[in-house]
């Protein structure tokens, strides 16, 4: 959160926060919102990373996740 506060356009901070929220059991909406921001700022690299990231295995079948990370 501190990194985002310092630079809200830092895509890696949004991605990391989405991973942390997922690990801590936050709501899918919060996780996907942060992941979406990382993708919007950082581009397709974050789509690819999310598709392959084991931290997102529990939401990988969610249609919103699929839509965000579609090639």
What are the main properties of this structure?
69% helix; 71 residues; mainly alpha
Q: What's the structural blueprint in terms of helices and strands?
A:
Layout: H1 2-6, H2 11-23, H3 28-42, H4 44-52, H5 63-69
Classification by helices and strands: mainly alpha
The SSE string, one letter per element, is HHHHH
Multimeric state of these chains? Answer: single chain
Biggest pleated-sheet summary: none
Low-pLDDT residue spans: none
> How large is the share of residues in beta strands?
under 5%
Task: Give the overall average pLDDT.
Answer: 96
Tell how many strands the DSSP assignment holds: 0
Helix content: 55-70%
Radius of gyration: 11 Å
Choose one word for the global shape.
Answer: globular
Structure description:
With 71 residues, this protein is mainly alpha-helical. The protein has 5 helices and no strands. The protein starts with a helix and ends with a helix.
Q: What is this structure, in a nutshell?
A:
The protein is mainly α.
